[in-house]
Amino acid sequence: MNHNTEHTASTDRSENSRMKISMQRGIEAWFDVDDITIRIWASSWIGREIVTIRVDGRERVVSDRYSWRFRTPHEFSHNGHRYRVDLSVGFGKAAVELYRDDVLIDSDQINRSGIRINPATGKLDWSHTMKRLVVPLLAGVGCGMAFGYLVGVVLK
Fold first, then answer.
1. What is the largest CA-CA distance in the chain?
2. Entry pTM
């Protein structure tokens, strides 16, 4: 069970996580609970979210919707239990929480943003943050200066 774990992913999938995230393929997560495997997929581009369950080797869609919200619930029933999958996305982060009969039973999250917080201390990891943000910041400043220079040359 990946209960309340956070992973900073440098690749599409962390080794301890049953979750993937990428701009091309979207978000994908899996939970093995009771006698089923619950699979969640969400597009990075069109807002489509699909929840499927696999029972005895057969997969069926239990929720399929389009959503542009930062948090979307998906609800379904199986073997007398009510399940809810809450998918949260935004700014390089994704989290999935799985509820059975309104009780949180599993969750997973992944963080691909440049900001990382040390879970032991709760403090910002400045060295990692600076490495991930300095290059884009300098590239942005350089592009802005080049654009300003070109506009100044054209307007003279």
1. 75
2. 0.61
**Token duo for residue 54:** 């696999």
Range of 13's domain? Answer: 6-111
Beta-carbon contacts of residue 105 (< 8 Å; ≥ 6 apart): 1, 33, 98, 99
Residue 58: name the closest of 36, 91, 30, 87 by CA: 36
Q: How far is residue 25's CA from residue 61's CA, in Å, rounded to a whole number?
A: 19
Q: Is residue 1 domain-resident?
A: no
What are φ and ψ of residue 18, in 5° steps?
-105, 50
User: How many structural domains comprise the chain?
Assistant: 2
Residues 56, 89, single domain; the answer is yes
Q: Are 69 and 54 in contact, with CB atoms under 8 Å apart?
A: no
By the 8 A CB rule, do 133 and 126 touch? no
DSSP strand pairing (93-100 vs 103-111): antiparallel
Which DSSP letter does residue 3 get?
Answer: T
Could you read off the pLDDT tens digit of each residue along the chain, which spans 156 residues? Answer: 444 433 333 333 334 457 787 777 888 999 999 889 999 999 878 889 999 999 988 999 999 999 888 889 999 999 999 999 999 887 667 889 999 999 999 988 887 665 667 767 777 777 777 777 777 788 899 999 999 988 888 887
